Structure formats: C-alpha cells, structure tokens
C-alpha cells in the first residue's frame, strides 16, 4: 500500500477550495470551486484532496443517523494498492472492519473499498480503473 491522498471531508467546500487554492496557493490538479471535489499538489507523491462531506456520506450510505458516527466523517486516508479485491480480502481476514466491499466508482475513475480503523477513522484502498480498449 502507498499513501496517495489525505482527503478532508469539508462542510464549506467553496471556502475551503479558495483557502487551499488562493491563500495557501497550492496548485490545483483536479476540480474547481464548484466541483465538490478537488485535488491539490503539495509537492510530494501524496496529494491533498477536499471533498464535500455529503458526497462521501451518500456514497458510503452513512448519511442517515448512525450512533457510531454522530458527526459524520471529517477525514479519509487513501491508500493506493495494486489489486483492491486482494487487498480488501486480506484486510478483512486480518480483522479490519469493512464499511464498503470493493466496487467500481466509475465517476471517480477508481475501484475502491472502505474500512474503519479501531478509532473509527475512514480508510480507503483504491486503484485506478483502466479503460478497456475498444474491441471494434
């Protein structure tokens, strides 16, 4: 596994985008003020991303009242792996608490699975989806 992103799950996406882009002057690699997701170059192999909190809550189906998550997630740590299914199976067999089984997130361009650490922090393992070449 390689740490590829720290993703902040923010309430005020537009203000956070302007803060990281305009005040910290981090180069924007993906997204804009209205996209609800953006990635910033922090001059390392690990990127900083911001995501509107509701988007992640809806994707993981945690947008309902959950006594274990009274305030919803604020942070996600993202690890890139070569094979999401293999890594997820290993994590589960080693005792990790899986939130979402591996699936393709075509809008995000990744295959991913989600877990929680013992303190409840959200972890994502993913790998890029590679388009299948046109067979025609």
TrEMBL record:
Superkingdom of the organism of origin: Bacteria
Domain VOC: 2-128
Keyword field: Metal-binding
PANTHER family (alphabetical): METHYLMALONYL-COA EPIMERASE, RING-CLEAVING DIOXYGENASE-RELATED
Official protein name in the record: Catechol 2,3-dioxygenase-like lactoylglutathione lyase family enzyme
């Amino acid at each position: 596994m390689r740490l590829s992103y720290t993703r902040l799950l923010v309430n005020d996406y537009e203000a956070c985008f302007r803060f990281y882009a305009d005040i910290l002057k981090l180069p924007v690699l993906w997204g804009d003020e209205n996209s609800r997701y953006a990635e910033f170059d922090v001059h390392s192999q690990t990127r900083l991303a911001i995501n509107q909190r509701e988007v992640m809550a809806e994707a993981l189906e945690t947008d309902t009242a959950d006594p274990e998550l009274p305030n919803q997630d604020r942070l996600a740590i993202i690890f890139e792996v070569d094979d999401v299914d293999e890594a997820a199976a290993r994590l589960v067999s080693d005792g990790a608490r899986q939130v979402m089984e591996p699936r393709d997130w075509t809008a995000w361009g990744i295959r991913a699975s989600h877990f929680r650490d013992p303190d409840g922090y959200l972890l994502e393992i993913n790998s890029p989806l590679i388009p299948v070449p046109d067979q025609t």
